Amino acid sequence: MKRYFSIEALRFLTSLSVLMYHYRHFFSPLNLLSNNEYESVKNNLPFFKYLDWLYTYGFFGVHIFYTISGFVFAHVYLYSRKNSSLKEFAVNRIARLYPLHFATLIFVSFFQILFLVNHGNFQFNLINDFYHFFLQIFFISSWGFENGHSFNAPIWSVSVEVAIYVFFFYLINIFKKYDIKICILLSVILIVIDKLKIFDTLFLECARLFFSGVLVFYIINYYKKFHVLTILSLFLIILSFTGNFKTFVFCPAIVLFFLSFENLIKSHKVQRLFSLMGNLTYALYLLHVPLQLTLIFIFEELSINISYYSNYLFFIAYFAILFILAHITFTLYEKPMNKLLRKRLLNEK
Length: 349
What we know:
The protein is an all-alpha fold. The protein has helices spanning 5-21, 38-41, 48-57, 60-78, 86-119, 130-137, 155-178, 180-195, 202-222, 226-240, 247-259, 268-301, 312-346.
């Protein structure tokens, strides 16, 4: 199956933007052991002059990733001649997402207990009780049953997306029958629901962005003039910044913009690089909080000056360690566990 290398690169960049936004975890009020208030020190953060927009708006990477997911799922399932069973669909998602989620959940739980024992509170102001651990175990930590973020908090976005995956699965045959028409109708309905404030949930926001990605998939398959798609995407990006920022316009426009350059990625070295970047995305997203907890704990135990969090060398070392850990985790844990679970549960060779 064709792999979109431009999308792999964009996946990596969206993950990186979230990591930049979460760099604030090293400072109070999120870091309970720090006396440096994030708002008062942010102008002195490493490379702030060039990266201030990522420090401030990096969380929009999650929104873009929802759109990317819609595009990828459409690519994998809508033009496939083979109809996937619910079991196969579920196993593929579980095998891809659950092993690392479970491992990081256990790791974060251990370190949060250490913080509680040593400092009388959980780090990052998270709710880490048995009830929320139960929600985390079953991947429903952001389905409306929770009282706030818990444990490895970034998993909230994946939890929401899992529900949209199930919704998408039951729509596959309808999409195959009515094609782009049902996608446009669904997108319009979701926008109207949002504008009329009928519901205000994370699921609605995720679904709106997810199915905008499905719409992008139809557009690039129906319209092959990529230079026109580049112009269209740039127009939509500019439009998204007119008046109030329009996330629903910006996210599919960014995905469309990257896809418009897909045919230019011909070098095998560049393709391998983009594939590697894409492979690291999930690990980077789930490993950065465990790494932050570890570093904060070590700094506190060794009485290392917390001013290092604003140091350029610490910044570079932190991201270097994170990239190395993500690569090792994907190669030695994520990928093998994915294959093992698929083999055991689907009898794949």
